[in-house]
Amino acid sequence: MGFLPKGYEEPVTDNYMKFQAGANAFRVLSSAIVGMEFWKEETNDDGESVRRPVRKRMDEPIYPDEIGVDRNGEPERVKHFWAFAVYNRKAKAIQILQLNQKTIQKELRALDANPKWGDIKEYDVVVTKVGEKLKTKYVVQADPKEPIEEDIVKEYEAMNINLEALFDGKDPFAVQEDVEEDVKKKPKAEEKAKIDPETGEEEINIEDIPF
User: Fold this and answer.
1) Paired strand residues for 40
2) Cα gap 135→127, rounded to integer Å
3) Which pTM value belongs to this model?
4) Is the pLDDT of residue 144 over 60?
């Protein structure tokens, strides 16, 4: 017998799924929230300069003076993002997957809209990451349809993940006592994003977003 048990893997402590080199299999567990994201540099309570993401709902305007600059002095890019709960097969953990990559978004929308596949929550998705940095490519495939394990569903429901917390800079995994009240307060989404034209981002129709 070796020093560590056969098949040992380091336990996952990250609540967010990140694509690793090779195949990344996951099952979508929730509908997606969608919005716009940019990064902003701020000073924390210790006087240290930190960068944090700012996420806006699709009906919230983004003004030029809100957007900071990157390390090269250029305005931060504003990106369209999706975020949803998944079961990460390799990590054996329920996590949040945030997608900013348009190529992956396009492929998932196509799967979800394809009558031969249908609801993307009914089968596993495998995203294979190849290359690094600017040469990174992603290949998206769907596994055959099969019911999700009941224990995963029960664990997910018990976690009561609140994706809307991302828009407030809070932890979606924190215990939510007033989830229903939070949903009532959620602004009504308009048909198109209201962002400053200088960002160069496309206007997005809410009804086109899957899940």
Assistant:
1) 52
2) 16
3) 0.76
4) yes
